[in-house]
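Async update (no meeting this week)

Hi team, since we skipped the sync, here's where things stand on the single-chain job. The sequence we agreed to prioritize is pasted below, unchanged from the tracker. I ran it this morning and attached the output directly underneath so nobody has to dig for it. Comments welcome in thread, and please keep replies under the output.
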Amino acid sequence: MKIERGVIVTDGYGKTSVPGIYAIGDVAGAPMLAHKAEHEGVICVEAIKGLNPHKMDKNRIPGCTYCHPQIASVGLTEKRAKEQGREIRVGRFPFAGNGKAIALGESEGLVKTIFDKKTGELLGAHMVGAEVTELIQGFVIAMNCETTEEELIHAVFPHPTLSEMMHESVMDAYGRAIHI
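Output:
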């Protein structure tokens, strides 16, 4: 069985280099998260059954830290995107500019978005603040649906909510922030 850096190498469907042997979860490498392992399991079983599942994209797995304030992210960091030679736009929006965060007494934090300047592709999102482990899923869905910054700008978010900061960080990336 092929192993690299202490983990079993798979093909994105759980299949290893040994016919009939599959691997998911921590033995298949980072990120070592329960929700990643569960999703790998579904993909693996569907592949075994011949159902034509999607290939696992580890870049679209949200990472969440359950502390105070919470931390959540998905995709590339600004640094990693630049290392890949991408031209990027970065948007930021502070929790202090959000009425719901202020009302909750949770005005410390930030939402940051990274977009490919040429294609509008959402490359990553990073959040620190109240309930961001719940909010990150909006960016995960946007990445999976290959939503562009323009489509996110046109989305209407309810007010007052913490989720509207997602919209504001996108608007900021394009010089269109309205609440700062």
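Quick observations from my side:
The two ends are 55 Å apart (CA to CA).
The mean pLDDT is 93.
Reply here if anything looks off.
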